[in-house]
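Q: I'm writing up a methods section and want to include an example of the input and output format. Could you take the sequence below and give the corresponding predicted structure tokens, formatted cleanly so I can copy it straight into the document?
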Amino acid sequence: MEDIAEIKELLSRPRNILISSHRNPDGDALGSSLALSLYLQQLGHKVEVVTPSEYPHTFEYLPQVRDIKIYDVHSEMVDPFLETCDVIFALDFNGLDRIDKLGGKISEVKDRSKAKVIMIDHHLDPEPFYDYGLSDTAASSTAELVFEFIQFLEDTRYIGPDIATCIMTGLITDTGSFKYNTRPATFICAAKMQERGIDVKEIQDAIFNSMKVKQMKLLAHALFKRMEILEEYETAIIVLNKYDYANFDIQRGDTEGIVNYMLMMKNIKLAAFITQQPQIVKISLRSKGDISVQEIARNHFRGGGHKNAAGGALYGSLSMVINKFKEVLPEYMEKVQIENNK
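A: Here is the clean output for your methods example:
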């Protein structure tokens, strides 16, 4: 990492530090943010972790997760602290628009203060909003990069079971239990975390075996009533409309992971999960092997992500988004087939 000496100097005495991550935080956003916070607290810094919106109940087991400030709810508490910050960490996002109103506030503070912004992220095409950055699109997760960041600072002695639990959570969730987005460094990081005495099975159980009854019923409904198979394109689609949201009382985190079930079918290589939100229609995309869904999300749904996991959203009707995806799909899959046959 470039400028590590300057960062060491910046963190060499107690600072006010804000750690921010993206809207609808997932296991990597939460795990990386809390791991970094726990590390910085040991150095004597005053740290606040802030996300634009609430996190799924699944991650209640994470150390200090209940101390996270939700900007949609706690802006009157966050704003005064932000004005005093010396350092702002941006984790698991590549542009300030990913953190909504919090992004605008950070931009304002940065313009009129000496606060330094440090970005740690693994998404493509980061925008130039930061002073220092650790950006690696080959990394499995931002949690892996937080471990790398602590290594650069030569401070791995501070990684105990709590930090290791947070980092392992990010690794597991962003790789689908190490099924994709992995590299040798990912498994080295996981091994180092396990050496800290964590129970990996316990973490896996907390993430994947803590569904509510209504979530199980919703999953059954989605697979049985709302799934469409496009055999010609080896694609499956699940659509949840506003009536599904009302009937199942769907809350934040209740739909987590549904998109992945479609890829359990042998002949399905691409999965689309489309949901009707109050103001927008969201689309989550997953794929197998060499099929990259990042291009679809970026070019057609104002989104982005990774090769095998991406997403986006559009204003408009549910039918419009469904039709747009189906219109794009034939051309895209044909392009993938041509490239694979070269």
